[in-house]
Amino acid sequence: MTENHIYDLIAAHVAEITADVDHGPITRSSMLSPLGMDSIGRAELIARMLEELSITAPAYEFHQANDLGELAAIFASKIKERQKSA
User: Fold this and answer.
1) How far is residue 28's CA from residue 51's CA, in Å, rounded to a whole number?
2) Domain count within the chain
3) How high is the pLDDT of residue 29?
4) Whole domain around residue 52: which residue ranges?
5) In 3D, which of 22, 56, 23 has the Cα closest to residue 68?
6) Which residue ranges does the record assign to the Carrier domain (predicted)?
């Protein structure tokens, strides 16, 4: 799975989670807070992505991401780590 595909999944989940929030377009450089994602929304996003990508990792490992592009990169690196250990 490519980082671009992972980003698309993240963007779709963000749009769904924040459907009732008026915000601008969702881009790779979008930060979660301006999109209306509070800590509960962030936790839901990470949980959804971990499940969808079949990744087992602590949620705190994804908190270092500053924007959606960085978050996609972290998920992509977790997939690569899983593939190497398989």
Assistant:
1) 21
2) 1
3) 95
4) 3-85
5) 23
6) 1-79
DSSP 32-86: TGGGT--HHHHHHHHHHHHHHTT----GGGGTT-SSHHHHHHHHHHHHHHHHHH-
Amino acid at 38: D
Give 35: exposed, middle or buried? Use CB within 10 Å, 0-12, 13-18, 19+: buried
**Residue 55: which CATH number?**
1.10.1200.10
Question: Looking at residue 83, what is its pLDDT?
Answer: 87
**45, two tokens:** 């996003």
Whole-model pTM above 0.85? Answer: yes
What residue ranges of the chain have pLDDT lower than 50?
Answer: none
Q: Is 36 left (phi over 0), alpha (psi -120 to 50) or beta?
A: left
